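User: I've been going back and forth on whether these two constructs are worth ordering. Before I decide, could you fold them both?

Assistant: Sure. I'll take them in the order you sent them. The first construct and its structure tokens:
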Amino acid sequence: MDPYFFGYGSLVNAKTHVYQDTRPATLRGWRRIWRRTDLRDQAFLTIVPDESTQLKGLIAQVPNADWQALDAREIGYDRLHATGQVDHDHHPDLHVAIYSIPQSTCYLPNPEHPILLSYLDVVLQGYLHVFGPQGVAHFMETTDGWDTPILNDRDTPRYPRAQQLSQTETALVDEHLRAVNAQIL
């Protein structure tokens, strides 16, 4: 049986990857947070242990256990075994991995390393398509670091897997950012 990964950010948006058999799932014992590394110029999502949090996300198949392309996409992250922490509707013996930035290489974001709005748009579009508006609200509530500045790069996206959002999707993202008093640059 092929292994699967659990996505909790941009990987929830199936338009950003080719992995098949995507299914909603829940990760127990982790919380999303905005961080940066020396490997990227912008802030991005990682997860940190938190026994009180459950994250909605997506599992998807990694054919023939060929992790090379996904590991390259997730550069800066460690791939961790998470089988016992992921609830899903697939086979009970399914192997599931998660990606997390090691604490030793992750730093607080700052204005020089902002969140790209084009990246956040992709993430929230994925949550909207898989989980509906409640999924977007869940993402916002289970993610820390909303004091991180957000660079509005919608007109010229810097995120390589940027997607076109509808007017309704854009309005939903903007509404949630106002609710957390996000600082848009």
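The second construct, handled the same way:
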Amino acid sequence: MWQVYILKCSDDTLYTWITTNIERRLDEHNWKKTWWAKYTRVRQPVKLIYSEDLENRSDASKREYEIKKLSRIQKLQLITSK
């Protein structure tokens, strides 16, 4: 099972990505010594605010791309609609 997720960073920006293990990825994003996710490394702590389950990596990547094309307002509407 793949997931697409959105994090809210400490500077109030939104970060979207995919994973197969959301708990592990959230820990990686919030662990200061990690080399993962350069964008979130300087915007800690991050908080998970949205996720969707998808069947495979292809579907997750397509959905990630769709979400990344949304404006901030549209992303916030997506988050509140769930």
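Notes on the second construct follow. Residues 57-69 form the longest helix (13 residues). The chain is about 45% helix and 25% strand.
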